Amino acid sequence: MFPVKFLLVAAAALFQGARAQGDLSDTNNITSLQGTWSSNSHVETGGTFCNPANYSFTYPATTGISYSFTDTGFFEEAQYRFTSNATNPTCITAYILWQHGKYQLNDNGSMTLYPFPSDGRIQVQDPCAAVTNLITEYNQQTLYADWGITMDSTRKNYKMQLNRFDGAKMPPMWLMANPPNMLPTQYLTGVNASGQAA
Ligand SMILES: *[C@@H]1O[C@H](CO)[C@@H](O)[C@H](O)[C@H]1NC(C)=O
Ligand SMILES: *[C@@H]1O[C@H](CO)[C@@H](O)[C@H](O)[C@H]1NC(C)=O
Ligand SMILES: *[C@@H]1O[C@H](CO)[C@@H](O)[C@H](O)[C@H]1NC(C)=O
Ligand SMILES: *[C@@H]1O[C@H](CO)[C@@H](O)[C@H](O)[C@H]1NC(C)=O
Ligand SMILES: *[C@@H]1O[C@H](CO)[C@@H](O)[C@H](O)[C@H]1NC(C)=O
After folding, report:
1. pTM, full prediction
2. Of 20, 50, 121, 181, which residue is least crowded by CB atoms under 10 Å?
3. Are 172 and 161 in contact (CB under 8 A)?
4. Ligand 2 contact via 135 beta carbon (within 6 Å)
5. Distances from the Cα of 54 to the Cαs of 66, 78, 140, 164, 190, in angstroms?
6. For each successive 10 residues of the chain (198 residues), what is the average pLDDT?
């Protein structure tokens, strides 16, 4: 299969304005969250990455992650990643997932994603599992303990870092588009909170 490889940031890269955890003060908020952010240009939200209505993904050329946000409280998430297995190195699991919904910036500096439950999709390819390759629903409310936007002086672009509640750092992402590329910010399948079909 493919090597586990994410975009590496050049060690020499210098970053300005590093943000302390939970610090949302003006000096550290150098730009709005709004936009499409990606670890590399092959993976982007919106477009054809996922079609939740017919349970299909269009696989990007390389692995990566992408998030979009609007200033009105909506998000979209697209991930295509490999995880290796320390016990069994030949069991490299690939997963591709997509979800969208609303996000909230919490008082303690964290961010919570609240997906529209019926729209998220995931496909897992595990060469060592009995059943693999199915595309199923995915609804993962997610807490990022810390996030920040800095200026990457090497790339001359904004860089976003999301850090999960368990301390794991997500791959860094750069601003790709603003306004963001997103599928419609509403329920696309199933029924919404007022019980109406999409
Ligand atoms: C960050 O700045 C943007 C643009 O000025 C503003 O819309 C947004 O509310 C700010 N966010 C925070 C958390 O201060
Ligand atoms: C799902 O729908 C899209 C858009 O109509 C189409 O391009 C794609 O081929 C469909 N995929 C499957 C697996 O049906
Ligand atoms: C790693 O591989 C072992 C043996 O195939 C399996 O039992 C285990 O569930 C795998 N772990 C993960 C995290 O996939
Ligand atoms: C920060 O706030 C969120 C939302 O209220 C909460 O879920 C999370 O546990 C809090 N984190 C810490 C470290 O208190
Ligand atoms: C539910 O969907 C209907 C039809 O698309 C829409 O008019 C309504 O505003 C939606 N309600 C909520 C709470 O999203």
Report:
1. 0.81
2. 20
3. yes
4. no
5. 21, 17, 20, 30, 12
6. 29 32 52 94 96 96 98 97 87 94 93 97 89 88 92 90 91 96 95 78
Ligand closest to Cα of 106 equals 4
Q: What is the residue with the minimal CA distance to atom 6 of ligand 1? A: 32
pLDDT in the model for residue 84: 86
Domain spans of the chain, in order of start: 23-177
- Would you say the CB of residue 193 lies under 6 angstroms from ligand 5? yes
pLDDT of residue 88: 85
The residue whose CB lies within 8 Å of the most ligand 2 atoms, and thus the one to mutate among 51, 135, 183, is: 51
Q: Residue 109: CB partners within 8 Å, gap ≥ 6?
A: 21, 22, 23, 24, 145, 146
Q: Which residue's CA lies nearest to atom 3 of ligand 5?
A: 196
What ligand 1 atom has the least distance to the C-alpha of 105?
13
pLDDT computed for residue 29 by the predictor: 63
Give the pLDDT of residue 194: 79
Atom number, ligand 4, closest to the C-alpha of residue 143: 7
